[in-house]
Amino acid sequence: MSTPRIAITVGEPAGIGPELCTALQPGQHAARLILLGDKPLLQARARQTGSAVQLVDYAPETQPAPGSLEVLHIPLAAPCVAGQLDQANAPQVLALLDRAVAGCQSGEFAAMVTAPLHKGIIRDAGYGRFTGHTEYLAELTDTPQVVMLLAGRCDAVKPGYALRVALATTHLPLREVADAITPASLTQTLRILHADLQHKFGLAQPTILVAGLNPHAGEGGHLGREELDILIPVLESLRREGMRLVGPLPADTLFNPPVLAQGDAVLVMYHDQGLPVLKHATFGQGINLTLGLPLIRTSVDHGTALDLAGTGRADGGSLLAAVDLAITLAANQAQRAG
Ligand SMILES: NC(=O)C1=CN([C@@H]2O[C@H](COP(=O)(O)OP(=O)(O)OC[C@H]3O[C@@H](n4cnc5c(N)ncnc54)[C@H](O)[C@@H]3O)[C@@H](O)[C@H]2O)C=CC1
Ligand SMILES: NCC(=O)COP(=O)(O)O
Q1: Most ligand 1 atoms within 8 A of CB, residue of 135, 272, 298, 302 to mutate
Q2: Exposure string for 250-264, b = 16+ CB within 10 A, e = fewer
Q3: C-beta of 288 in contact with ligand 2 (< 6 A)
Q4: What angle do CA 265, 267, 272 make, to 5 degrees?
Q5: Residue 134 annotated in ligand binding
Q6: Mutate which of 112, 113, 119, 171 to test ligand 2's pocket (most atoms within 8 Å of Cβ)?
Q7: For the whole prediction, is pTM greater than 0.95?
Q8: Keywords, A to Z (predicted)?
Q9: Is the ipTM of this complex over 0.95?
């Protein structure tokens, strides 16, 4: 069997993505690592941050020399200075994703890993509907609904415990969150999460802890009706299908270790209900995985960190974890396919 190829998009050129990518050690992975980005930028950022890695041009059918990182060169539109955003380069950031997706769909790549991009500069450049990788990849692959899941090891719950936090809504203004949680969307989110806990994480009968939307999970309807009108009926209906669902639970106490220990994953209703807790517990080694896509996509748990770009001080642990997970998921998928 040939060595799997993993596409790694280097993300926002002014951020820490390029230097974290050139700090990867290809010899440590059972896969070919292909960096999708501007080659001169990657060479410059590697020099600036003290990486001696050998960057070679990607040729699909040619196995690179041991220890070298392959680069699929997609040029920037304008020169880039670390830490300084330039909307002229936004189309290139999206072109990296387009190329990675095309390669995953054709079978050229076994999986894709994304280094962080800057959502604001892409919007400033005129991509008015862009809200993040998750939504963009769903659109590119014609997937009506996907689920964002972040995960990291959290020994405070119990040794080796994997804290997995999935989101019922992703990058939405808070004002729009309640309206976005419908019986149909919540049902589909739980179906995708349940199926991927089984297939991607090997949990035969996963237990999902579901957070309420309102304070105290609505306090019996006195602090909001979404639990009574939407969450409880959806959970009851899916329980009748055999899913193990606990909740809706008040989000303020759900993340206490004894409660977390009863589940395999948490479903929160919105971005900042769950991710601050996850990042507090696991920042620097967490991963972000998009569930429900027809391809494997993992990512980092952090953003572009413009304040650190070019310094070589950014922690590469999360990118490493994302690459490792992509390789594992790709190997599992290949094994299932026979
Ligand atoms: N997967 C992605 O593409 C993600 C992109 N973002 C985007 O990144 C941009 C900046 O977001 P912020 O909220 O400022 O978050 P951020 O994660 O870029 O920075 C927050 C703080 O964490 C630090 N930090 C981040 N990554 C680090 C690392 N690897 N090692 C050490 N310290 C690190 C930064 O220096 C900063 O102090 C935004 O446009 C946001 O949308 C944010 C999260 C994920
Ligand atoms: N906070 C996680 C995050 O914003 C990741 O977004 P995405 O770009 O991976 O969709």
Answers
A1: 302
A2: bbeebbeeebbeebb
A3: yes
A4: 120
A5: yes
A6: 171
A7: yes
A8: Cobalt, Cytoplasm, Magnesium, Metal-binding, NAD, NADP, Oxidoreductase, Pyridoxine biosynthesis, Zinc
A9: yes
**Could you please report the per-residue DSSP string of 130-158?**
---HHHHHHHHTT-S--EEEEEEE-TTTS
pLDDT in tens, 230-277: 999 999 999 999 999 999 999 999 999 999 999 999 999 999 999 999
Closest ligand to the CA of 289: 2
Q: Is the CB of 318 under 6 A from ligand 2?
A: no
Residue found by looking up tokens 């999970």 in the block: 217
Q: How far apart are CA 338 and CA 334, in angstroms?
A: 6
Query: Rounded CA gap, 168 and 181, in Å?
Result: 7
* Neighbouring C-beta atoms of residue 329, cutoff 10 Å: 20
List the chain residues with pLDDT less than 50: none
Nearest CA to ligand 1 atom 36: 305
Residue 297 marked in a binding site: yes
